[in-house]
Structure formats: structure tokens, C-alpha cells
User: What shape does this take?
Amino acid sequence: MPVVMMIGAGIDYGRIAAARGSLQQAADAAVLAVAKGIVSSTTDQQARSRAQVYLATNYRNATATVTSATIATDRLSLCISAQAQVSTTIMHIAGQASMSTQVTSCAALQGGISPNDTYEISLVLDNSGSMTRSTGGTTKIQALQSAATSFVGTMFTKAPGRVKFSIAPFAGGVVAVDPTVSTNRSLSWIDLAGANSQHWIAFSNGELTSDGKVDAVKAKADANAAGFTNRFDIFDKLKAQNSSLDWRGCFEEPTYPYNVQDLTISSANAETLFVPYLAPDEPDSSNNYGNSYLDDNDAIYSGWGGGGWGGGWGGGWGGWGGGGSSSSSACSDTASTEWGMLTHICKYKTANSISGSFGPTSFFGPNQFCPDNSTQTVLQLTSTQTTINSKISQLTANGNTNLHAGFMWGWRTISPVGPFAQAKAYSASGNHKVIVFMTDGFNNWGVQKRTIVGSDYESLGYYTYNGIANGRLPDGRSGDGVNYQSSLMAAAGSSSSYLSTSRGAEDELTLEACANAKAAGIEIFTIGFSIPSDPIDDQGLTLLKNCATNKDHYFAATDAASLNLAFSTIGTGLGSLRLTQ
Assistant: This one.
């Protein structure tokens, strides 16, 4: 009998050892899961309760209990202890029906990293008009300001002297530099010679090559002959007529694929230089255009009779009926087509502005979709907390949504190359490059039906240029494989809306940019601020999920409290989560 009991005890102890291994695995999973959600207000009791839920899910033993949970005083580690009763078989005969097993598991909280590590964090924050809408008695922009300020405070507390922030507010565009600083008009990365292929495409004086494409060489020559070396010269003419028409600090995006890459600036390659944003004056005599801010009749030919389009929409592009030149014309040549009227460079020589509001809330004029530079200018990397908080407090909601431009300018602020080139090298040891990308909406590039361009003029330009491809759009060689350059050419003159197609193009650019940033080693957190009364659709949420580093880096916020929780969780979560015991 004693021999039998000894053999039985061995069997039972083997079962206990196996059970203990399973309990340890369950406890490890529980401590990691709970550690991800630890915030400044989390108590030990709350951590224990959450761990109990995870333990019960992963360990099928009704007696399994988390007996304690302890968050370290520096809030950088969490330990839990768990125990369970394991039923015996042979030893049950001797009166011992069960045996107890105990385990302990500890995790370094996300953010519990080396005290020598540094952070470069870009806050890419949606400032579009929908951020004025209310959630629980506060506007979304106010909720963002509160959450972002708390996040900044968390990081400065956790990594004093080792954290820098940049802020890239975005709406329909991004104010990259302060236009009131005169030297910001002569930066080395700006296309001051007007040599970039996109510089004169919407100011091309109707110049076309024999195969129907914009003749960039002739367009540049015409601009130079009219007295314009670059777009700042046009702004000077506009400002002379109306001080509200001065450049507001936005730039247009480079051609594809430069506009989804961490671009190294080279004066030898004009395509790497940035073109100042200038929305063209659109023809006066078509109700289909929304941005006519110059008097075309005076600026091009004062004798024009206003006869309208010669051929009508159905029969192709006719000339301007009743048009003609006069001795009082501001230019020696005239425009006889819609394309010519739109792109006529000489109308900017006299720049006779018509009456209207040209402020940042009007979406009218040469800065049509460039936000207010007094509140929404990019803040470059800084370690001064008061400067960061001040910028957050100034954020103003207005305009539509351009996720691609916002993301790219955020990335550029933490890049060691590109326009700012202030950040550490990607290979710098112990340095963490992070983008926190928050939006309450999705890409929205406005339509202008029955025009030869198909759309509003944003940082990517028009959908098409008189049926000519937009070289800033994806060409199908990567990503989703769709040639959006070709797809949006059909928008010229169409009565159909290409809003879905243009959104697809901007989404593709955004996702390619996210993928390239992740490949460069940048950690990306995304937050969809989707309140019930103003939700982000499934396509928009999917984009944010796919942009993030992984599923744990994506957050959905439905009110001010959950937005604050998202930022708080990110603040706690920067760094690597790992078991320590």
C-alpha cells in the first residue's frame, strides 16, 4: 500500500506541475493584458479585477484566483499573484482532495524603458470644421486640446529632458511654415526657380505639347515673360491689390511617389523641391467654378462680351462666344478656351480682385484651402513644454479633411532629412520616433462637376488638367494597384461626381505613406474620434487601423472621456511591453 501511495503521489504531483505551468501561462497573459491599460488613475484593486477576468478566460479552473496585483510607485511595472486548487486522484484516498499551486507574474509597463531612451513625437491633429461639433457638452476640438495637453504632460513627467514634440495641425491643407517670417520665403527646399513640373501646370497659359500634354517648358517661359519667376511673384501682385491675398504658408505635395516618401531635398532635382500653394483664379463666366477672385474681363481682355461657352457641354469644349481682344487688354495675347481662361498667366499682372471675403474661413482666393496661419502653423520639434501646450491651446477647427497632407507633414517634422531635417537619424540608438495621428473624419477632396479640372484645387492640385493626368496621384504600380491618374482624367467635363474615386486616391496615398513610415521604424498610433452624431464611416476607420503599427496601436474614441483615455493609454504605452518575472 505505501508503494502504491508513493506512485500515486508522483502522479498527482505531476498533475500539479502541469497545472502550475498552465496557471503561469494564464497569469503571464493576464499581466500583459492589464499592463497595456494602466493609466495614471488605475488602482491596484482595479488591476486585480481586470487580471481576474483575463485569468478566468485563459485558465479553465473555477478556483483560479488573482490574489494580489501591485502597481509600482513609479507606475512602470505591474505584478500579480495567482493561485488555484488542483484536484488529486490517488492522494484523494489518503484524505487530500486537492492541492494548491501559486504563481507570480510581472511585466514592465509599456513605457518602462531605459532611462537613457529619447522620444521624438509628432502629434498629427485634425483641425477640420467638424471638430467644432459637440460631444457631451464640449466641442471635439476642446476635447482634443485637453487630451493632447495631458498626454504631453505624461511624457514630460516620464522622460524629463528626453522628449521632443512637434505638432502638425491639418484640415484641407497644412501651414508648414510661418509666412510672416520673411526668410521662410527663401528656404533652400522651396522651388524658387519655378522649375518643378507642377509649378506652372495650372498657370500654363494654355500651352500644350503636340500630344496634348501641358508644355512645362513653354509654360515656364510664358510665366517668366510675364514677370513671374515663381509663385511668390504672383502673390506679390495679388497682395498689392488686397493685403488678404498674401501667401499663407502652405505648400503643394510633390509628384508621386515622392509624396509618400521621406524625401531627400536636392537642388539638382527640382521634383524634390516644394511648390508654394496657390489656388488658381477660375473663370468668371461659369457657375460650375467656385474660386473666381480676379476680374477676368479686365485682366485678359476688357472687350469680352460675355457670350458664354461656344460649343456647349454636349459637343466638346467650344471657345468663349463673343470674346476678343481690345486695345486696353492687360496682355498681348487672349484666351479663347476654358483651359486658356483658367491658366492664363497674364491675368495676374494687373490682379484686379473682385469683391469678396478672403479670410481663412471663406475658402476663397489663392489660399483657398490653406488654413489660418495664425493658429495652425506646424510646430517643429521642440523640448519646451510651454511652447507645445501653447500651440495646442491655439488650435482652431475649420475646413475640410486631408489626411495625406497631415500625415506627411507630421512625418517630415521627425525626419532627419526633408524640409526640416531637425530630427535624429533613424539609426540613432535608444531614440523612439512616434506619430500620433488623430482625426474625426476621412479624406475629402471637393468636386467641381462640368469643369475641365473636375475638382477644387487642394495640395494635390486638381483631379485632372483639361483631361491630362495629375502626376501627384498613385499610378497603380504599388499599393491597391489602381491607376488613379488615369481614373480621374475622366472627370474633365463630366457631370458625374468622382468624389469616391478621389477619396480612394487620397486614401491610397495615406496608406502608402503610413507603410513607408513604419518601414523606416516609426511607431504609429491612430485615433478615430467617431462620435455617434458624427461618425467616421467604415472605410475611414479601416484606413486608421491599417495605418497604425498594429491593432493595439489603433484607438476608437466616441466621446471626450474615451479620447482622453486613448491619449492616456498611448502615453503609458510608449516603449516595449515585456515580462520581467
Summary: Residues 185-251+264-369 form one domain. The radius of gyration is 30 Å. The chain has three domains: 2-108, 118-174+371-442+511-579, 185-251+264-369. The CA atoms of residues 143 and 561 lie 8 Å apart.
